[in-house]
Amino acid sequence: MRTAIVTTTINVPTLLEYYIQDALAFGHREVSFIIVADRKTPVAAKEFCNDLGGRYPYEILFLGVDDQERYLSSYPELAIHLPYDSIQRRNIGILMAYQRGADLVITIDDDNFLAEPDFVRRHMLVGQTLEIETYNSPSGWINVCDFVTEERGFRFYHRGFPLEARSLSPDGHPTVSTLKGRVVANAGFWLASRI
């Protein structure tokens, strides 16, 4: 399965090397890495990625601002929706991975530690038909962060949870059932905090 791991960064993405070493250790050969820079990304980030590309048997593609501008010139209507200084820049890497034939696209944040071994395999359930537990809510929204406990009892939300849905009262416990279906997306979850 051709896999692309995509991230955006305003730092030197040093954690990327752990993902590369993990993929190599578990025999994932058809993996590429796409790093989307932003205006604040230091020059050292490109140098670091080029160095990784020279030391590991994977394609490591660093997209600087100029590279992105050239790429997006074919998609002017899309470009206006991908502002600088925003996580949305990562979408450039996702689109590029798709166009380059990736069967599986995994996005990571450049500050997420690799928590468990064989990271790529853990995402290979995408596309499979499985029988799994599903969670449903009368409001249509489930805040996955309600399944974790913050030590002071604060309610918090996963990035991407709609702001308008935050005003809905919690539904208590969602209903749980078993459903057979094709997995179309797999979202990781936090295992611990390093704050």
Q: Looking across the biggest beta sheet, what order are the strands in?
A: 3-2-1-4
Write the H/E string, N to C: EHEHEHHHEHEE
Tally of DSSP β-strands: 6
Which CATH architecture of the largest domain is right?
A: 3-Layer(aba) Sandwich
**Could you tell me the mean pLDDT?**
90
Distance between the termini: 35 Å
- The stretches of 5 or more residues where confidence is low (pLDDT under 50) are none
Please give the CATH class of the largest domain.
Alpha Beta
Task: Predict the CATH topology of the largest domain.
Answer: Rossmann fold
Short summary of the structure?
By secondary structure, the chain is of the alpha/beta class. The protein has helices spanning 16-25, 43-55, 65-72, 76-79, 90-99, 119-122, and strands at 3-8, 31-36, 59-63, 104-107, 129-136, 175-182.
Structural notes for this entry:
It is a single chain. With 195 residues, the chain is of the alpha/beta class. The protein folds into two domains: 3-122, Rossmann fold; 129-182, no CATH class. Helix content is 25%, strand content 19%. The chain has helices spanning 16-25, 43-55, 65-72, 76-79, 90-99, 119-122, and strands spanning 3-8, 31-36, 59-63, 104-107, 129-136, 175-182. The chain has a four-stranded parallel beta sheet, sandwiched between helices. A two-stranded antiparallel ribbon has the order 5-6. Helix 2 links the parallel strand 2 (31-36) and strand 3. The chain is globular. The protein starts with a strand and ends in a 13-residue tail after the last strand.
